[in-house]
Amino acid sequence: MLSLVLSSTLRGTGRFCRLQGVLSPCQPVPPSAAVSCSFRFLKTGQYSVTGDHDPELLDKVKSGTFKSVLSVAAPEEDLRVPVPQLEEETKKALGGSESPSSTFRNVPVTPSTLYYGVAHDVAAALGELPKPVLVHCRGGVRAAAAAAIGLLTEGDEETASAELSRIPGRSDLIGWVDRFRRSREVADALEVQTESTGLVFRQLFDRESCTYTYLLACAETREGVLIDPVLEQIGRDLQEADDLGIKILYALNTHVHADHITSSGCLKEAVPGLKSVLGSRYAEKGVDAKADVLVGHGEKIHFGNKFLEVRHTPGHTAGCVTYVTDDLSMAFTGDALLIRGSGRTDFQGGDSKELFRSIWKEILSLPDGTAIFPGHDYSGRLRSSVKEEKMFNQRVNAGGEEAFAEVLSALAARLPKPKHIEVAVPANLRCGLEELPGGDLRCSGCQGA
């Protein structure tokens, strides 16, 4: 067992500041100490670590002692030998011009990215690169932490622990490596729980907006998605993924929300490579909604060996979608279909008759046993099923489109508009980011930052 003493207050540290009660990535946390590590071979002979300060860095690369190089410095860092130059020199010395990733990889490790996803990428790179590998960063400290991750992956906890002992004062990096180790132990336990479904699943709740967020991941590859993440809960969601050893590939929104701000944009800062997803029908209806991926009806979102099918279910808003698991066992309906109810239709291009058709054609046409996971519930209920909603949902069984529309019209007359609609909708049209003069975007939770 890797012996590390880690204060609980350090778990999940990274590029976060708290503004007006909102945890959001905006300003980097500086390293706690300026520590550097000299060049050295590790006991296993598989990895060596070095820093940009090493005057013989390029000579070592050209010597043929190493078969590959992993740099965990960011390409934009001001280094004596910048990452792009190091990559070029590595390919010249070791080959790999036709397949650059065969001899050189760059996985930036920064204070804002100390989460499982980056640790996973480091482990994957070290697993694929030919040995021995020279691991590089500015001062050698992040390289030592990266090498420790490679050693843990190979089961050499003794050498990994020795590496971490060389970087005192960097509790952020030590904690990052320790969380990676613990997540691997959790993954072993989860294999038993997920054997029948192949899916890791967590239902999470935001008390303020009564919003459900869903974390799903392929049990085998640990690649996953977050559905309808809430800005105020970004720290919780990242910690949950970190604890379970899940690399989040996509932040999926079922629609442009009016009652809370999505954390999709801020998640992109914390998780390199993460993409935001929204239904394509907003654009088709002339709504200027932005996301990395605009998904059409019937498209599939893959994560590991699993996927979610996209079903357009407009009516609550013009661009709502429902996400359905590949085995049709689960449907994430957002605000289209709620437990014993449905979303309202009196703003954002809502259309009661269209919603009625969406619910019956795209959701209640699923197998009776399909579990329904809504975007909200205000009575503490967690889930329903297609069969239950067909039997007990009085709103969708009101007697057809006209009767359904009358029910929703009466509902709109007595309900106030969502209290955050004026702030939430503009932000969510930009994945939870605020557009500044000049076109730049910033996290909507970081006013004044």
Automatic annotation (TrEMBL):
This is persulfide dioxygenase. SMART domains: Lactamase_B. It is found in: Mitochondrion. It holds the Pfam family Lactamase_B. It catalyses: S-sulfanylglutathione + O2 + H2O = sulfite + glutathione + 2 H(+). Its cofactor is Fe(2+). GO terms for biological process: glutathione metabolic process; hydrogen sulfide metabolic process.
